């Protein structure tokens, strides 16, 4: 073995890419759901393509759940608290989109990627097929 | 609104640029190739593996281990040096709890102790009936496919070589899944007793690197240089065993002995049938993981007082350098492979095994059977750690895609290798010229030749090979004589202790003289396969 710093560098990079991968996935989810949400609205009512607050908030939920694998129930309680806190704050609007992202982030955080994928696809379908006036 | 959008967009871009910059810095520090391998392992293990949401139960036995979390933390904090420290544990197997001592193992190979799936050893006073051995290793398999070593040992076992018990298991430590691991018997003085082959403890020697002492890795000693380099294991009587091992080491490294005299001495101390099976298995498994320094075990069989090798850590397709016909993994193999009759016997054993494994599809069938049992657990295993680059310290989590690719790759490599070996063994194109009562044979293929002629011919025939009498035996109504091939050492200066040596078969140019004349029934065949030469 060369040096322990070399070993840690590799490990850090592995973890860093893991974070980036999750962030990338969540970025896509926020982009797609945000687009589908705003598609039926008038251009003036649409939000930004990427809602940064929602992205960071939901990413926080993913990290929280992944770092508390030993006690999933506690992690879920904390994640729910983050989602509710986000909902109560004025940072994340529209609220409906925040809940959808929250659920997707929770599934990703619990390593349930297939469920998350199916959930996002179903949400996309529902958003694309439903009228936008009631959002 | 548009101002907010613009500033939000700029912020997002800044974040993106920052993330890319950090990644580029990492890649620059690690080097592009290494960074790409680690990144690929990270991305696929993060995104692909979590697509599987099943919770498989059957198929593999579950080993549930309970240890004091504080004691385990203490060991974890000082790896690999804490590997010598045992802590108390309880092992639940099949619903029954067994007290055992638990310690980490494998200080030399980082894949044993880096990452979250760490190899350990359990020592039982009363072992479970499922694996009735006093000591078992539970190791993180070195290969992505996890079956490599298991299959290597299975091949050895099929070929009649003593092998440690090896099976894939699921492991939980304090309720946390550690995923699929390989339960690997640690040969000890109960090696024969556990197999019902002896009532008593037996003398067993481990040929490996010396033990870790004072936070220093053990010495690398040439095993056949000195009997003291072998580690006596267990509590059996060692008096006779030490004397016999000393004699075997002297037979291997002693000077001034002829090949025949040395072979006689070795055959009195070593079970040659099993040792040749062992050499054949090393060739078939294609492993160079067993060498002059480590991965060897010798058991003294109390029935005949001869040593028997145990195949250990036989990594499948861990290539022998230079695609050798006669790979010399250690000094004993050097001495044994110098003997033409033993080379022939080894080749026959390998050929028999290859026909079953490759032609009859036994290896593929066994692989599929084991893989079917392992697959759901491998899919569910989120704790797969191995070397994702060729650097020892790069032990990271890898994905199911790595495992699939590795499984397909090793099967393909084995198949190609075995097809090549079969061709190499069976191909026997010999140029035969008749000159009166002489046959002039020449070939560049590697096959030894067998000459046979009917024993019921009225005249007695004497055969000379290059002017020297060729010894024949009568068998099945035929006289048979083998024309062994000469071999040359791969090194300009032969040394029994060199690593990765081989004997190469020299081209054959031989004149057979038949006195008084060539019998009408004479046949020349490949001495291994008994097929007529081409």
List keywords for this structure.
heterodimer, A: 135 residues, mainly alpha, 0% strand, B: 534 residues, alpha+beta, five-stranded antiparallel beta sheet
Describe the protein:
The complex is a heterodimer of chains A (135) and B (534). The model of chain A has no long low-confidence stretch (mean pLDDT 86). The radius of gyration of chain A is 17 Å and the shape is elongated. In chain A, 75% of the residues lie in helices and 0% in strands. The longest helix of chain A has 36 residues, at 4-39. Chain A is built from five helices and no strands. Chain A has 135 residues and is mainly alpha-helical. With 534 residues, chain B is an alpha+beta fold. Helix content of chain B is 33%, strand content 24%. Chain B is built from eleven helices and 25 strands. Chain B has helices at residues 2-30, 32-47, 69-76, 148-158, 239-253, 259-269, 272-285, 331-337, 340-359, 362-380, 400-426; strands spanning 62-67, 87-93, 96-104, 120-124, 135-139, 166-173, 176-185, 204-207, 231-233, 296-301, 306-310, 326-328, 385-387, 395-397, 431-435, 438-443, 449-454, 462-465, 468-469, 473-475, 478-483, 487-489, 501-505, 508-515, 523-526. Chain B has a seven-stranded mixed β-barrel with strand order 1-2-3-4-5-7-6. In chain B, strands 15-16-24-18-19 form a five-stranded antiparallel beta sheet, with no helix packed on it. In chain B, helix 5 (239-253) runs antiparallel to helix 6 (259-269). Chain B is globular. Chain B starts with a helix and ends in an 8-residue tail after the last strand. At the A-B interface, helix 1 and helix 5 of A face helix 1 and helix 2 of B.
The sequence of SSEs of chain A as H and E is HHHHH
Class per helix and strand makeup of chain A: mainly alpha
Largest sheet of chain A: none
Low-confidence runs of chain A (pLDDT<50, min 5 residues)? none
| Number of H- or I-type helical stretches of chain A | 5
Number of helices of chain B: 11
Straight-line distance between termini of chain B: 88 Å
In total, how many beta strands of chain A? 0
Indicate the radius of gyration of chain A in whole angstroms.
17 Å
pLDDT averaged over residues of chain A: 86
Write down the Rg of chain B.
Answer: 28 Å
């Amino acid at each position: 073995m060369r040096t322990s710093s070399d070993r840690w560098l590799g490990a850090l990079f592995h973890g860093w890419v893991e974070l980036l991968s999750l962030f990338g996935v969540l970025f896509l989810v926020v982009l797609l759901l945000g687009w589908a949400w705003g598609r039926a609205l008038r251009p003036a009512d649409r939000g930004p393509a990427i809602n940064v607050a929602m992205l960071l908030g939901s990413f926080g939920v993913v990290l929280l759940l992944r770092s508390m694998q030993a006690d999933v129930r506690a992690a879920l309680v904390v994640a729910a608290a983050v989602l509710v806190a986000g909902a109560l704050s004025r940072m994340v609007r529209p609220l409906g989109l925040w809940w959808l992202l929250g659920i997707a982030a929770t599934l990703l955080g619990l390593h349930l990627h297939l469920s998350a994928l199916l959930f996002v696809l179903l949400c996309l379908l529902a958003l694309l097929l439903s009228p936008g006036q009631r959002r | 609104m548009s101002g907010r959008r613009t500033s939000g967009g700029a912020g997002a871009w800044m974040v993106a640029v920052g993330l890319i910059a950090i990644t580029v810095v990492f890649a620059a520090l690690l080097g592009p190739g290494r960074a790409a391998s680690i990144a690929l392992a990270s991305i696929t293990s993060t995104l692909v593996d979590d697509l599987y949401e099943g919770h498989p139960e059957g198929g593999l036995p579950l080993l549930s281990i309970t240890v004091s979390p504080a004691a385990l933390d203490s060991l974890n904090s000082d790896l690999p040096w804490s590997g010598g420290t045992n802590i108390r544990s309880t092992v639940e197997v099949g619903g029954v709890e067994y007290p055992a001592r638990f310690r980490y193992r494998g200080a030399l190979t980082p894949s044993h102790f880096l990452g979250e799936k760490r190899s350990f050893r359990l020592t039982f006073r009363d072992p479970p009936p499922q694996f009735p051995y006093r000591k078992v290793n539970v190791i993180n398999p070195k290969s992505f496919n996890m079956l490599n070593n298991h299959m290597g040992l299975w091949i050895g076992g099929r070929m009649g070589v003593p092998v440690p018990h090896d099976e894939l298991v699921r492991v939980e430590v304090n309720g946390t899944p550690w995923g699929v691991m390989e339960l690997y018997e640690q040969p000890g003085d109960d090696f024969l007793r556990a197999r019902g082959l002896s009532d008593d403890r037996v003398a067993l020697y481990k040929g490996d690197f010396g033990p870790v002492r004072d936070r220093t890795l053990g010495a690398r000693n040439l095993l056949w240089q000195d009997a003291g380099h072998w580690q006596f294991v267990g509590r059996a009587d060692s008096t006779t065993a030490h004397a016999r091992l000393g004699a075997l080491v002297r037979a291997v490294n002693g000077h001034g002995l002829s090949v025949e005299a040395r072979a006689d001495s070795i055959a009195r101390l070593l079970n040659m049938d099993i040792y040749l099976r062992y050499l054949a298995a090393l060739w078939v498994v294609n492993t160079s993981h067993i060498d002059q320094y480590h991965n060897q075990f010798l058991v003294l069989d109390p029935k005949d007082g001869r040593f028997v090798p145990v195949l250990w850590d036989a990594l499948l397709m861990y290539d022998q350098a230079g695609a050798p016909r006669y790979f010399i993994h250690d000094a004993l193999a050097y001495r044994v492979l110098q003997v033409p009759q033993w080379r022939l016997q080894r080749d026959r054993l390998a050929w028999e095994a290859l026909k079953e494994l490759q032609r009859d599809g036994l290896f593929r069938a066994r692989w599929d059977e084991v893989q079917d049992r392992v697959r759901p657990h491998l899919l569910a295993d989120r704790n797969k750690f191995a070397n994702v680059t060729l650097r020892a310290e790069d032990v990271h989590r890898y994905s199911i895609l790595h495992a699939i690719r590795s499984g397909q790759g090793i099967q393909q490599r084995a198949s190609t290798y075995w097809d090549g070996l079969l061709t190499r063994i069976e191909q026997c194109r010999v140029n035969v010229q008749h000159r009166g009562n002489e046959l002039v044979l020449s070939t560049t293929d590697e096959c030894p030749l067998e000459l046979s002629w009917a024993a019921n011919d009225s005249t007695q025939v004497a055969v000379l090979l290059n002017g020297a009498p060729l010894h024949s035996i009568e068998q099945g109504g035929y006289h048979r004589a083998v024309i062994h091939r000469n071999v040359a050492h791969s090194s300009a200066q032969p040394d029994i202790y060199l690593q990765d040596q081989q004997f190469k078969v020299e081209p054959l140019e031989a004149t057979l003289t038949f006195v008084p004349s060539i019998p009408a029934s004479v046949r020349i065949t490949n001495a291994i396969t008994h097929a007529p030469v081409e």
